[in-house]
Amino acid sequence: MEPRDLSAHSVYRPGRGIEETARELGLDPDDLVKLSSNENPLGPSPAAVDAVRAAADQMHVYPTTSHTDLTAALAEEWDVSDAQIWLANGGDGALDYLARAMIEPGDRVLVPEPDFTYHAMSARYHHATVDSVPLVAEEEFRQTPDRIAGAVDDHRIVYLTRPHNPTGSTIDLESLRAIADRTGPETLVVVDEAYQRFADVTSAVELLSERDDVAVLRSFSKTYGMAGIRLGYAVVPEAWADAYAAINTPFAASELACRAGLAAIEDDEHLDRTLDLVEWARSYIREHLDAPTLPSGGNFVLAEVGDATSVTERARERGVLIRDCTSFGLEEYARISVGRREQLPDAIETLNDVLATVETTP
């Protein structure tokens, strides 16, 4: 017996971890600087850590109460009904729920190119056909209304990201509204806002009060430093919010994740420190890196480094991990996540040495 034909499916390849890379290079993990996975360099919210510790002896209990409490807290934060909050096992789980609710086999979806791989992966898992609309360097890889809406045909879902991964470009609310206005009545615009708090843009959740063709994806991984615990959610229109009960897995988020989430959204001190660090680090990278960079609203900067594979490999050998964007179709670009104030200057100096070496190598 064989699985179904998966030949058309792409593979998500995450950045390699510190311990894994250290073993390969024969180095101490403490000697590596990881700027490759857009993680929060400050770590998780301390309040979330305390909440996990406090709830650890309750991990044998299904998360009925905590799931309800977190849903209600998020609904209050966004001024929506509880039913409009679809908790999930990470933002990727929320994407799967939206695909389950919306896609019939044979439906078409539209993704930007380049893009976070899992948008297309989730759609294909649910038997959709994936089309792409190219984003171009001449427009700083922006998702403009003309470019996106001009590519929409009879697509069931249009995926957008704000800020965009891996380029960092953003979309203002009026442009989002214009894109949604130019799609058909049966097209859902899914706005992935995993990085929205790092950008100077109002959340697209605001659009849900006026329309039923936009859903917004949110994550606890970036801002709150909780990537390892896998917690995310979608905010959906009230008109079809009840679909969650028919498509979600039992207990979509764990007891520990829900307790951590409840604590994290109250930890304003950690949030402020994170946002301050991201703003500083983006500016530092763009000012001191010896390579052209793009404006970014995320917790990373995209840099035009030439031979991205050579640059990232040589930087890796010297203990600095950045993301080769060849897998995104951007062979001359590398994505550099923000780092801590005490580590980033040395890391950028190392990258500059590597860039000079690659440039002079025949």
TrEMBL record:
<dbReference type="InterPro" id="IPR015424">
    <property type="entry name" value="PyrdxlP-dep_Trfase"/>
</dbReference>
<dbReference type="GO" id="GO:0000105">
    <property type="term" value="P:L-histidine biosynthetic process"/>
</dbReference>
<dbReference type="InterPro" id="IPR004839">
    <property type="entry name" value="Aminotransferase_I/II_large"/>
</dbReference>
<keyword id="KW-0663">Pyridoxal phosphate</keyword>
<keyword id="KW-0028">Amino-acid biosynthesis</keyword>
<dbReference type="GO" id="GO:0030170">
    <property type="term" value="F:pyridoxal phosphate binding"/>
</dbReference>
<dbReference type="Pfam" id="PF00155">
    <property type="entry name" value="Aminotran_1_2"/>
</dbReference>
<keyword id="KW-0032">Aminotransferase</keyword>
<dbReference type="InterPro" id="IPR004838">
    <property type="entry name" value="NHTrfase_class1_PyrdxlP-BS"/>
</dbReference>
<keyword id="KW-0808">Transferase</keyword>
<comment type="pathway">
    <text>Amino-acid biosynthesis; L-histidine biosynthesis; L-histidine from 5-phospho-alpha-D-ribose 1-diphosphate: step 7/9.</text>
</comment>
<dbReference type="InterPro" id="IPR015421">
    <property type="entry name" value="PyrdxlP-dep_Trfase_major"/>
</dbReference>
<keyword id="KW-0368">Histidine biosynthesis</keyword>
<dbReference type="GO" id="GO:0004400">
    <property type="term" value="F:histidinol-phosphate transaminase activity"/>
</dbReference>
<feature type="domain" description="Aminotransferase class I/classII large">
    <location>
        <begin position="31"/>
        <end position="351"/>
    </location>
</feature>
<feature type="modified residue" description="N6-(pyridoxal phosphate)lysine">
    <location>
        <position position="222"/>
    </location>
</feature>
<dbReference type="InterPro" id="IPR015422">
    <property type="entry name" value="PyrdxlP-dep_Trfase_small"/>
</dbReference>
<dbReference type="InterPro" id="IPR005861">
    <property type="entry name" value="HisP_aminotrans"/>
</dbReference>
<comment type="similarity">
    <text>Belongs to the class-II pyridoxal-phosphate-dependent aminotransferase family. Histidinol-phosphate aminotransferase subfamily.</text>
</comment>
<protein>
    <recommendedName>
        <fullName>Histidinol-phosphate aminotransferase</fullName>
        <ecNumber>2.6.1.9</ecNumber>
    </recommendedName>
</protein>
